[in-house]
Request: fold
Amino acid sequence: MKSRTEELDNIADQEFQLCVIGGGATGSACALDSQLRGIPTLLLEAGDFAGATSSAATKIIHGGVRYLEEAIKGADLQEYHVLVRALHERVRMLENAPHLTRRLEFLVPSYHWLDVAYLDIGLKIYDWLAGPGRISPSKFLSRDETLEHMPGLNVEGLLGSVAYADGQFDDARYNLALVQTFTAAGGSALNHASVTDFVRGANGKISGVIAKDHLTENTFTVTAGAFVNATGPLSDSIRQLATPTVHKRMRPSKGSHILLPLEVFPTEDALLIPKTEDGRVLFAVPWGGRLLVGTTDEEVSPDAELVVTKQDVEYMLRHLNQYLARPVIPSDIVAGFAGARPLVGSEDSGDTKKLARDDVIEVDPASGLISIMGGKWTTHRAMAEDTIHVVQKALGLPQTESLTRNHILHGGEGFTDDYWKKLCRAYPISEGTARHLAAKFGTASERILELTAEDPTFMQPIHAEGRAIRAEVVYAVRYEMAATIEDVLARRVGMQFYSWTDCIDAAPIVGSLMMKELQWSTAFTRDAITGYAEKIEHLLDSAGLSHKRGAFLREAAKPLLTDG
Ligand SMILES: Cc1cc2nc3c(=O)[nH]c(=O)nc-3n(C[C@H](O)[C@H](O)[C@H](O)COP(=O)(O)OP(=O)(O)OC[C@H]3O[C@@H](n4cnc5c(N)ncnc54)[C@H](O)[C@@H]3O)c2cc1C
Reply:
């Protein structure tokens, strides 16, 4: 990927056939599909790639067991369609980015024989619907077998569990891999640049966008033949920017997650809590060395603040603790995140939890804007395939096949499960760092480690206890368009989803490295570190978690690496 400055210069000189607005999973997948079909494409993202919903998922590649139940009970064809499509896409998602995905076993503990029978039949149907896309068959595990997998389960009345398989992935890094693959195919992408208005031709159709670069406050105009609105929960804002009279369609729903030390519930498999008090399911999933618990479902306005609240924490712990031998308390929580599901409503839709996760493609006849709304991470590729068919039609191009079905994403080329061993042999790094690099960057890890020849201190960790090294920060800035401390710690390195307090410690080092790379002034760097620290404090406050107020600010005041 080019640097932001290079990309800005590059955009100024080019005419595009397609401009995609929104660099989450949907927009990035659309950009990739389009570019691979030979359509010169620009991707514009208001914040960071994956900075919104697409890094706030439960990180499960699934058809959705809950949707199966709804499809059967409600004889709902739409739910059935979403489910089958997702089950088939599951396999493609796993195969196209082997470094960022893995197969995962889910256990549903059972305390009544009727539940066992109900689940067993349901999951056999799940297996059957997946057909050749089946990962492995579901099965019943006895009480002892269940406890071997999950020794921390509440044993009282436990009969056993029903186990089935789905996939798991690193959502932020998957999103970045889509963008990297897109730019490697010749596409142009820019983050921290939002579309603020449209330019129209004589016929009223959109012929360009006016965008604002948030880092310089400059605005620029880009022309293109077609425009895709892939702004997720904010889709209505772009639809109404194009045609102010269109009715709103989005019904965003907030979902929160918390992260706990894996020691509170040691497991390599995921726990599915089959019934919450509001008729949903809750997951507790081992992810990146933590136990990821989620999620909630609460309808919100598109501009609502998306943070984990004290009530969200209480809700999740209340349900989780019923299944644990040793209850978890709020002070066990090490991090959390929340996002908004981009759900599309209909006239008669009630609760957001009942809205189908199907996607909708809309072509606005007045402006020509193509909006892709709704869907799930698991179906992002298929949604993009359908959207680019519509784009080709809009551009008057012949319809061609999508090339993304079997297209290996950046970092996945030549990747094997033991790739980390190769890194250990070639570089003086710990197994932990090698595994971390392999899981986040795949075969691009070697490019990161090559940077340490330039400066041996790049080999040092960014946090005393962590596995991430300083070279990752340099790589993220130079080759992944990271422009803020949060871009690095949240989405490039993943530390913000691992430990909020580690992030506090790491922020001054990350800030110092970025200062050198991006020629920030000392005052700007200190503000960046302080601003990030205040944000983490706010996250802790919102979740009702105690912390040493001002500890971040004291960290920020420490000498910068470059001072000494
Ligand atoms: C709590 C939760 C759990 C989930 N779990 C799963 C799961 O386990 N598995 C699964 O398959 N799916 C899951 N999903 C669904 C999945 O995460 C979403 O469907 C998907 O991430 C939506 O991607 P998107 O690109 O449409 O939206 P977003 O990721 O929100 O991307 C839209 C982008 O548009 C940008 N944008 C907005 N306005 C502008 C503008 N004016 N100019 C430029 N850019 C703009 C935004 O900054 C944003 O980055 C979950 C969702 C939530 C909320």
User: Anything to note?
Assistant: The CA atoms of residues 317 and 329 lie 7 Å apart. The two ends are 32 Å apart (CA to CA). The mean pLDDT is 92.
